Every structure is written in C-alpha cells, then in structure tokens.
C-alpha cells in the first residue's frame, strides 16, 4: 500500500519529467438496457418517474487508464470482451499517446495484467533482445510470478505497480468509474450495445475537455484498524 500511495504522491513531479502514472482497470458487464417506455419529464414537487421494465441489448466492457497527474482518461477502449489481447491492445494505445515517455501503470492482481502479451509488449519497447522463454516451461514467461517480476522492473521504460489483493479502493480509476455510473449509466437508456459504446466514449471525451482534474489523494498507506 505504501508503494501505491508513494507512486500517487510522486505523480505530479514525475509528469513534469515525462513520466506518466496511470491508474488502469476494466469495468465489465456494463449493461445496454433500454427502458420499455420513455421517462416522462419531471413535474414541480414530483420525483422522476422512471419506467422499471427494460429490454436487454447485451453488455460492454470499458478498459480505462486515468492519468493520475491530470485526471484525464487516455485511449479508452470499449468492447464485448476483456481478454489478455484486449488489455494488451489498450496498454499499447495508451503508450502511443506519448511513445517516447516513461509509463507506470497501476493495476490490480488480475492475471491478464501479468500476461505474456504484456511481457512481449514491454520487451519490444525495451529493445534489449532478451530471451523471454516459454510460458509454462521456462524463463521470464514461465509463471505468473516471473512475469510479474519482469513487469515490475523499475529499470523499464514501461512498468507496472500492483495493488494488494482485495484493495480495489486503492486504484484511483475506481473513483472515476463511480462518476461514470452516476452520470451516465444510472438513468441511461440504450437501444443497442453500439449505442452504449458511443455514449461511453462521448462522455469520456466531454469529461476530458471540461471536468478532468486530479483526485486529492490523502491516504498514506498506513494500516487500517477495525
């Protein structure tokens, strides 16, 4: 926890030096729900009366990376799945926004965040020509632990910091997901999965232009007592 909080604290100074700290995660199972009947306009002294019946049009997954120093969402991706390849493509898209800078990705312990795809992406960017081995057999790719150790390496231009298990609240992008839920999803009505995708990306563009700012993070990583 202290490593995570120290990384957040150093993010503004790091950003000035071309080092981007980004908080990254997936919001899965976002339902494209269409209200069976339109929501009537509110009347004075009367709460909003929203239709409780709906039609399901599938789900979408948002993969988002928030720049901790600016509060902006970088290269968001919305699709039907959250596979290893999906996450790797998202990280590649984020890096492409400033390809010559250094990057620190804050992630949770999900196995797709410690994948062969990510190791190969980092290795290609490092350009060291090192032998990676074979997944499940040998070398850097051998196990989840060996891949994590490689991705954590502070000497890399792209590296990862992982939150402890069961501490999703330490990942700042989770705060942004709650903003998305309140402002877009809670009262939304979407006629298709594509309509949901369009609305999500439009809101992110609007948020980046008008609302984005860094969160005021005060937690210092001390143990919590209950």
Q: Can you describe this structure?
A:
The protein has a single domain, classed as Ribonuclease H-like superfamily/Ribonuclease H (Nucleotidyltransferase, domain 5), CATH 3.30.420. It is built from six helices and five strands. The chain has helices at about 1-15, 85-95, 115-125, 145-150, 175-185, 195-210, and strands at about 20-35, 55-65, 75-80, 100-105, 160. α2 packs parallel to α3. The mean pLDDT is about 95.
Task: Break the fold down into its secondary structure elements and pairings.
Blueprint: H1 2-16, E1 19-35, E2 54-67, E3 73-79, H2 84-96, E4 102-107, H3 116-126, H4 144-152, E5 158-162, H5 173-185, H6 193-210
Parallel strand pairs: 1-4, 4-5
Antiparallel strand pairs: 1-2, 2-3
Helix pairs in contact: 2-3
